[in-house]
Amino acid sequence: MGMTHHQIEESPPDAALDAIRDEGAPQSAQRDLEMPTAHEIYVQVARNGRHELDRSARALAISGLAGGMMMGLTPLAMSIVHALLGDGKAATFIAYLLYPIGFIAVIVGRAQLFTENTLYPVALVLAERKHVGKTLRLWGIVLASNLGGAFFFACLAVKTAALKPAYVDAMAKLGVEAVNVSASHAFWSAVIGGWMIALVAWLVSGSHSITGSVMLIWLLAFVVGIGHFAHSIATSGEILAAVLHHQVPVIAYLRWLWPAVLGNICGGVLLVTLLEYGQVKGD
After folding, report:
1. CA gap 235, 260 in Å, rounded
2. What's 91's domain CATH number?
3. So what's the pLDDT on residue 94?
4. Domains: count for the chain
5. What are the b/e assignments for 158-174, b being 16+ CB within 10 Å?
6. What is the pTM of this model?
7. Dihedral of CA 23/29/32/33: which sign?
8. pLDDT band at 31 (very low <50, low <70, confident <90, very high)
9. Is 186 domain-assigned?
10. Is residue 157 situated within a structural domain?
11. 282: enclosing H helix or E strand
12. How confident is the model at residue 3 (pLDDT cuts 50, 70, 90)?
């Protein structure tokens, strides 16, 4: 490879990213391609990570709060379908067709989502061998604010007259089903969920259009939903609704949350970011 670890450390901010880009196909050849190369996507992803790391704690928290609330669209849409159509196989399939709606709103709307940040800042960390502290700060702020947004959504859904009682009951039922799993199942399920949502972030970074991005988000998030793979933020909305509806104890939610968060981190970092970095550096 063209740069040593020492050279990366002492390079100006974007030098390591430029080196990754330059190690790919020649620029003239790249311009002739309709699709970006893995090198080009990685450079874009890492630069997105730099932007996120440079944001203030207040901006991250507000964006994360908005992201957590937007993710409430997922359990909201599903609970409405179940309340109207019942719990049969056809109704369940239709409900999961709407599962990606929260992800679409958050990702296209550029709000903060914790599982996306297992890709962007980590890509920068791997490229430049620094920013670990800033990345942990980012994770802490975004995770806490995402969960806060999910809680606010659950309060709106359960503790106000915004929703029909049938919708609230259906949402709480989704939460009960999601939380009643072992810690081992929650972790490994979340590994797959984190892998797929980080992969969404990677693919969207290489997409040329909003329409293409929406289709990518919908396809992969649909698999996350219908496969019942744990997502620490999306699934929190329905579980917290069940907690506020007195169907699930708080301790049960916490027992589910920590393996779900760890699994999402492992899936995103190890199965997407690290592998894509290896692919780029190995070319």
Report:
1. 9
2. 1.20.1080.10
3. 97
4. 1
5. beeeebeeebbbbbbbb
6. 0.88
7. negative
8. very low
9. yes
10. yes
11. helix 274-282
12. very low
